[in-house]
Sequence to fold (478 residues):
Amino acid sequence: MTHRRLRAGLPFRRVALVLSGGGALGAYEAGVLKVIEALQLAPSLVAGVSIGAINAVVWLAHGRRTAALEDVWRRMRPSNIGLQWVALALRAAGSFAVVIATMEIILTFTGSREFSGSYWIWKKASARIDFISTQLDVYSWLFTAAVGLCVIFLSRPIEGWLSRGVPGGDPQRGRMILGRVALGAFAVHTLVWVMAWAWPHRFSASMVILLALAWLGSGEGTVAHALRRMGLGLMPETGGRGLWGGVPRRRVIEKLVAAGDPSLLVGPGTGLVIGALSVDSGRVCHFTSWPNPGREFEERVRAELGEVVPMRTPQDAIRAAVASSAIPGVFEPERIDGRDFVDAGGFSNQPLHVAMAGGADAVIVVLLTPSQNPTPSPPPDGLFALGGRLLELANWRDLQMELRQLPEGWSRDGDPARVCVVEPPRALPGSVLGFDPEQAAQLITLGEQDAWAAFERAGWLEPERDGGPGGPDGAPAR
Fold:
């Protein structure tokens, strides 16, 4: 279908392109951009969110040519953008080894009768007492394992019983009781350890340590906060702010931009808007590539609980794209000028209002999920599957709100229509975090097919005639 042309006399002169977020499904947008390139359609404004922001930055840096973007999608794997599952597993194993080794060192001294007072002071030893103590340790841990299994299987009934029969207590009183229990356990363990009596010494020492850590971590102050931060930061490389950092994504974007013309990202030419959620204010921050967005633009964005931040250098655009694609919980927030930003996809994934505020008289919006009512689906079978489903629902809800707020005359109907929606007819194959070259190739093909069909439905293409293309070349919309 590459012989098709834009419709002659297409009345739109400021066409905006909106690229929505969706993680690995963003390869679909590369197929759409191939069609826009083939039509020689030059948008006056490109607004991107999450993976849409990354696609927009790379596409514009290469002069609205898609070859480099398509090439990287066909080679993209999870590790390329920082989804380092092996590294996460190694950090988990290393953290576990450190914790266990530290515990064993402490228990060797505090939980072994060989280092007790009777050995150091009275030089008294008894193989029989050691044997009984070891047996008691084994029995204690077996009992603990049995209790743990019961708690696992009975957690829901216990929760229901607690919610019905136990009123909410005072946290400070609970901490005081916990402290007294820990102190009592410490006193008992110290007594039997110094006296070298038959006792589950290692089990007892473990309980004392755990109770002490629980008591310290349940309070306020520097020590309590440090313990909680240490617990959150053992596995992730981000200190508990996400499973992975943003450095790999930034490197990929920087390399792709450097292979093109970074100066195309800011200043005159196609405007670029990147959306990211500000963690401190809760507003969707729209990073713009022109230095003076104008009062009217800022007021319209502010009315939608947003704010405007101009980008002055290509590096600003790269940092904004990294921030826009920082999926909460998966990637750590991106810090820009002392403020933290994350992916705004769950709040404003198709910012049509930004395109209209920028003076667009028509808009192409690319969706990575169907816009019709989401069909019921089986319950997601995993954390990331659930996250993908919630993202799909959030995108659908956001689009419906955007479409309902369109001014009169803006709709998907008409010949030509002001709103051209490129979307898959059904859920795309793959998942948000399923970066796979073969899957990406399929998504690119689907994006091309759906883009041609969408432009046809919107009345933006020259009618086909028997024997080949007909009519004069359509002038590129600007």
Summary: DSSP finds 16 helices and nine strands in the chain. The chain has a mean pLDDT of 83.
